[in-house]
Amino acid sequence: MSDPQTQAPEANKPAAELPPARILGIETSCDETAAAVVENGRLMLSNVIASQVDLHARYGGIFPEVASREHVRVIYPVIDQALQDAHLDLAEIDAIAVTRGPGLPGSLVVGVNAAKGLALGGNKPLVGVNHLEAHIYSAWISEQSATGQARSNAAGKPTKPPKLPLVALIVSGGHTELVLITDHLKYMRLGGTLDDAAGEAFDKVARLLGLNYPGGPHIQMAAVGGEDHAYEFPRAWLRDSWDFSFSGLKTAVLRTVRSLEAETPAGGLRMRTVADLAASFQQAVVDVLTVKTVKAAEAFGGKAILVAGGVSANQALRKAIQSKAPCPVHLPPLSLCTDNAAMVAAAGYFRFALGQRDGLDIDVLPTWPLSEL
Question: What is the spatial distance between Cα 30 and Cα 32, in angstroms, rounded to a whole number?
Answer without folding.
Answer: 6
